[in-house]
């Protein structure tokens, strides 16, 4: 890769690093794994940088690479998460912040209980804001598969959360 291409990649990386890291976190629920997964996605892009002709499609390529990595990683037996009976105590603080943090934690805990493929669809659809066709392209599956994975994922999330977040019942 020549100097100009290295500079282009460095600029793309700097602009998209945090967004990709957040997306990885929403898919896997662990910041350390999210860092690793995001890094692997950027490494894959860097390897193919000089072969990528449509630089406008880079975000889609990174999303696809990241999604596949999350799903593949979840299949490894040493990555299966274990739940605990008792959560650690929380420090007292601002009630508004506590409520938003509690809501986020509840949602993330629920997402961790959703199967990886369904979790990826939910993150791409509702947190990344992609439409059904965009998710289907990233996951290399049919739009019907995305719709059924979305429905199953939402149902699994609703079951995991119970009545914790009542507004999730209105998602479709």
Write the layout of secondary structure elements.
Elements: H1 3-28, H2 31-48, H3 58-74, H4 95-112, H5 116-127, H6 132-139, H7 143-161
Helix pairs in contact: 1-2, 1-3, 1-5, 2-3, 3-6, 4-7, 5-7, 6-7
Characterize the structure shown.
The protein contains seven helices and no strands. The protein has 172 residues and is mostly helical. Helix 1 packs across helix 3, helix 1 (3-28) crosses helix 5 (116-127) and helix 6 crosses helix 7 (143-161). The model has no long low-confidence stretch (mean pLDDT 83). It is globular and about 55 Å long. It is 69% helix and 0% strand.
In short:
This protein is mainly α and about 170 residues long.
The overall average pLDDT, rounded, is 83
Sketch the topology as an H/E string, one letter per element.
HHHHHHH
**What fraction, in percent, of the residue positions are helical?**
55-70%
**Backbone shape:** globular
What's the total count of β strands? 0
**Strand percentage:** under 5%
Low-confidence stretches: none
Radius of gyration: 18 Å
Structural class: mainly alpha
Strand count, sense and barrel status of the largest sheet are:
none
Helix run count: 7
Straight-line distance between termini: 45 Å
